[in-house]
Amino acid sequence: MSTERSKAPVNHSAWNIFGNPIFRRYCRSRLRLRGLGVALLITVLISGFVFFMFRSLSLYRGQLGVADAERAALIPLFVLQAVILFILGTAQVAGGMTAERDEGVIDYQRLVPMSPLAKVLGYLFGLPVREYLMFFATLPFTAWALWQGQVPASVWVPLYTALFSSTLLYHLTGLLTGTVVRNRRWAFLASIGLVFSLYTGVPQMAKFGLVFFKYLTITPVFMESRPGMLPDNIKAMLETVARLAPEVKFFNLGLSELVFTLFSQGGLILTFLVMLCRKWRRSEANLLGKVWATGFFVWIQVLLLGNALPTVDSGELFPSGGVRIFGRGVKMDPTGSEALIMAGIYGVVTLGLLLVLGGLITPTPERQVSGWRRARKRGEGSIGVLADSASGFWFVVVMALAGACGWFLFTRGLVESRWFPGQLVPVQVLGIYALVMLAAGVGVQVLMEFKGGRSVGMAAIFLGAVPLMVGAVLGASSDRLLAMAAWLIGISPLSLPLYAPASVLGLGGLPDAIALAVPRAFYFWLVSCAVTTVWLVSRLRAARKAMARKILAEPVSGKE
Amino acid sequence: MTATPTPAIDIRSLRVDYGEFVAVDDLTLTVPRGEVFGLVGPNGAGKTSTFRVLTTLMEPTYGEVNLDGVDILEDIEEARRIIGYMPDLAPVPGDLRVWEFLDFHAAAYGLGGRAQRRERVAECLEEVALSAERNHWCKALSRGQTQRVVLAKTLLHRPRVLILDEPASGLDPLARRDMRLALNKLAAGGATVFISSHILSELAEMCTSLCVMNRGRLLASGSVDAVRAQLGSTERTLIVTALAGPKEAAAWLGTQAAVQGLRVEGQQVMFGFDGTDGAQADLIEGLLGQGIRLRAFEERRASFEDILVEVAANNRRA
Question: Which of A339, A522, B52, B126 could lock A503 by a disulfide, CB 3.0 to 4.6 Å apart?
């Protein structure tokens, strides 16, 4: 047997996808003639049916011209393409990744001398390679319709660019779920659930001022491109509507829907890639480093504000704005309660993000022990600030303060707008907001660092969810119970950001019973939460000191 | 003064923790090049954790690990180039044929163009006697064949350090012998094989040296005999079968040093003996000098399994 030393340079360029061994491995297994043939046959049949059906209906029943009839099939075909790439592709990526881990072959892939990025890209394009081919199989019909329908490139290029960037985003979501979630079935469900919520739940945030979330989907670009893909009679109507919002405003900039979609999705794609590369480099690593997580949090805040603030004065940002645009002549001014709800939702979303990102950078007690032992071995008196095993406390504090600032700016933008003359948001509100973020966000992070994820899970159920549910049921039962419901709901830290604007802003608009109970409940529970957090912080500090003392005092093995 | 050659595996003060549980505790071990080195220990001894650290699949709490002079904590990519790893219950992807599985790894390790890869794959398949199964689906292979395919994968890039976790499990005796020969051949060519197995007798046969771990700690290392000695087991049981007069034989043996636990069963006299090999030869000569006619003389040493079972039991008691 030859044992000749081989030091062949293994230099797989991350960007040479077609030369990527992982990509080629999936091309082999997923593009076998039998399976691929059936998949392509079904795809061609469905897309052919869709194309000819819509074309015939438009041509013979709708009495449209040839060009219009050809265009009629474009949107149904586009929906089919989106289903193939978004749903089937994402499920395949998540399921395939989990299967690799389930079967145990992932360890082989970990060991091959390829860069983490090359591995991630190999999986990203390799696992759904059949779905890409199925997508390509629909393209002849689309190309024909675009050509015969005389659809200009300025319409379809942005649309398909956004389709591709959304596909990447969702596939990365699937890859991440498949990498993190251990159970194959759960990974599949989680990825589909995420994509589904990205299309249904998350964009709804836009209605409450968080316009940024809309750009994680293909919808804005699709809406912009849609008039150009429809028969002329519908096109004219939609173009008029589209002209009302010709561009996305981002602070003082005016960007096209496509550019802003790519900008929004790009940040998320980059962050997902970083997460996956970290996991490929070291399977036990945190999903994000502390600096990246903090930066990502700030970046989201900037996007949320940059998108929202320029549209306050026009009224587009408010839920009532939509009604005003369509119902011309019907003047619907934003109300105080609208502003309160929007500010509350901004706070809840910010707190949610803080909890998620804080969770990602918080080491388990076990990792902290390992970190201290490593520090002791190196003769250091503390764990490096940026190490995964180091406390995430200060970074979460920074995020909480940044979140409070973003929330304050958003609230001030709303309340001090022309819609609420004479209203001011005093700077003290920033202090209250900061206290909310610190009490709730840092409190949960400290509990996680101190007691681990299990305790946080229990707290989330019994302090986070149960009071909300019971309070909601009570509130729904009778008006007399509204005050009690407000107090009960206030127990949940998640309610603090919702209660805060209603308690500190003098906009009114709430029913009397709630208007009285909410501020009282808010201040009481805020103080309780803050005191608990301070107590937890002191316990955590004491525990960390004790842990450090104990470990640093252990004899260092291996030292002469 | 001659420079000391770089050892193939150099582990210093390795520690692996899972929270408060210490899986590997202060492991220091050096394996010279060209050895077939066995790692033995009961379940929970820390073998798998050690292997996962060596293969860069896990970051240790601390410690230094150098493979062929490469610090695996500092230069993971380079370390991965020189490692060949075969995990326990070696899995294979069900959606690939045998040659495709191997070709994928050959490509990932950068073993040249298609023709070169095909040649290397064929070589490795021949090494593990699976050339005929080249086009079989991986999922259709038997357990033993799967093990051999993974061994072939492990050999593909001619690793300088082979790390094999229970490689012989599931192999029939013939395949085990083939594997033993293959490993010896690799070692003769300069590669170092670090291997763990529960089939201890086989490991003792296969390895040039070995080490014993228990509860994360290294108990002994060296040649098989040295390990026996370090574990304090030089005792053996001797059985003398006399043609006549076993009682006389027992009476004389009872006066000899290093003899203990004498008992007579029929024509046989059994006793423990913890003297040297020379003292044992003197004992036989003495018996014959007493005019006792011996029909047979048998020596039974505690098997390696017995020693380890005892070590594990002692540790558990401790």
Answer: A522
**Cα dist from A65 to A227, B118, B235, whole Å:** 17, 58, 102
Query: How many CB atoms are located within 10 Å of the residue B32 CB?
Result: 16
- 3-state SS class at B260: strand
B308 within 8 A of B230, measured Cβ to Cβ = no
Shortest CA distance from B97: residue in chain A: A29
In the sheet that holds B36-40, the strands lie side by side as: B83-86, B161-165, B192-196, B36-40, B209-214, B217-222
pLDDT tens for chain B, residues 1 to 318: 456 678 899 998 899 988 778 899 989 999 998 889 999 888 888 988 999 999 998 888 888 899 988 988 888 888 888 899 998 878 899 899 999 999 999 999 988 889 999 999 999 999 888 899 999 999 999 888 898 899 899 999 999 999 998 887 777 787 778 778 878 888 888 889 999 876 676 777 778 888 888 888 998 888 877 777 777 665 678 888 888 778 888 888 888 888 888 888 888 898 888 788 888 888 888 888 888 888 888 887 766 667 777 666 666 655
A9-26 CB burial, b ≥16 within 10 A, e <16: ebebebeebeebbbbbbb
Q: CA dist A63 to A57, A58, A66, Å? A: 8, 6, 9
Are B108 and A21 within 8 A, CB to CB?
yes
Comparing CB atoms, the residue among B59, B63, B81 nearest residue A282 is B59
* Predicted structure pTM score: 0.81
In sequence order, what are the beta bridge partners of B213? B218
CA distance B21 to A468: 39
Reduce the secondary structure of A245-294 to three states and give it as a string: CCCEEECCEEECHHHHHHHHHHHHHHHHHHHHHHHHHCCCCCCCCHHHHH
Could you give the residue ranges of the DSSP H alpha helices within A390-427?
393-415
Q: Hey, what are A217's tokens? A: 């989907």
First to last CA, chain A: 42
The answer to whether the complex's ipTM is over 0.85 is no
The answer to whether B138 touches B97, Cβ cutoff 8 Å, is yes
Chain B residues 128-167 within an 8 A CB cutoff of chain A: 153, 155, 157-158, 160
Q: How far apart are CA A470 and CA A457, in angstroms?
A: 18
Minimal Cβ distance to B83: which of A7, A111, A558: A111
Report whether B53 contacts B76 (CB < 8 A): no
| B106 contacts B120 by C-beta, under 8 angstroms | yes
